[in-house]
Amino acid sequence: SQTIHQWPATLVQPVGSPLSLECTVEGTSNPNLYWYRQAAGRGLQLLFYSVGIGQISSEVPQNLSASRPQDRQFILSSKKLLLSDSGFYLCAWNPIQVGRNEQYFGPGTRLTVT
Amino acid sequence: AQSVTQLGSHVSVSEGALVLLRCNYSSSVPPYLFWYVQYPNQGLQLLLKYTTGATLVKGINGFEAEFKKSETSFHLTKPSAHMSDAAEYFCAVSDTGGFKTIFGAGTRLFVKA
Predict the structure, then answer these.
(1) β partners of residue A17
(2) B105–A32 C-beta distance less than 8 A
(3) Based on CB atoms within 10 Å of each CB, which residue in A76, B44, B96, B103 is the most buried?
(4) Which burial class, exposed, middle or buried, applies to B54 when counting CB atoms under 10 A from its CB (0-12, 13-18, 19+)?
(5) Which member of B34, B42, B90 has the closest CB to residue A102?
(6) Percent of chain B with pLDDT over 70
(7) What is the CA radius of gyration of chain A?
(8) Cβ contacts of B51 on chain A, cutoff 8 Å
(9) Can you give the pLDDT at residue B95?
(10) Residue spans of chain A under pLDDT 50
């Protein structure tokens, strides 16, 4: 069966510090991968998605970046965090199969920028 | 372009009462439609999905949704609410390409004892 992991689960970082969040998927190959941010009391904002190694599409201009160094690894980074970067970060994947557009989410990382 | 509108950011029902969460979508192509549930401090979990075929879709935990093309709706229902149903629910739409899914703003369901 497929599983998706995110770490860390929680993170408190000062403004201006760097960020690295990691997401890995097990039990599948060549998945589409996604990073979302969920601000308090708000819906999901798609940040990045990737259809393959090294292929990243950005949805929202910001001080975040994403990388996919391996097929099942997706990393979200920032060189300098802003207060507005606080939120709940969710990684998700979906299989590249006809009729299988559903996404499977990781447990999330709660980021607080102080 | 696709979009999703969830009517009501908060819905409160009594335990044992009918649950009805409303979702309307906009799509220029035949949509794939989804409902997800999110418990506090957790990721989203797929409740059910509509792709093609039968318009009444049954999901986990006794939930079901009906795709109504003429009304561009995909409302979520459950005949009898349980305390454990208290969570946030998201309606979502994607196209057959599947690269991106558009999520609604979410509806928080409260269940009163």
Answers:
(1) none
(2) no
(3) B44
(4) exposed
(5) B34
(6) 97
(7) 14
(8) 99, 101
(9) 76
(10) none
B77 CB within 8 Å of a chain A CB: no
Cross-chain CB nearest to A108 (options B42, B49, B104)? B42
Work out the pLDDT band at B99, boundaries 50, 70, 90: confident
Cα distance between the two ends of chain B: 41
Which 3 state secondary structure label does DSSP give A20? strand
DSSP for residue A33: E
**Torsion angles phi and psi, residue B61, rounded to 5:** 60, 25
Q: Which residue of A has its CA nearest to B10?
A: A41
Residue B34 in contact with residue B49, Cβ under 8 Å?
Answer: yes
- The predicted structure's pLDDT at residue B98: 65
Token digits for A23? Answer: 């997401």
3-class secondary-structure state, position A55? strand
- The pLDDT of residue B7 is 94
Q: Give the nearest partner residue to B32 out of A44, A88, A101, using CB atoms.
A: A101
Within the 6-45 window of chain A, which residues sit less than 8 Å (CB to CB) from chain B? 32, 42-44
Q: Angle B108-B54-B5 (CA atoms, 0-180°, nearest 5)?
A: 30
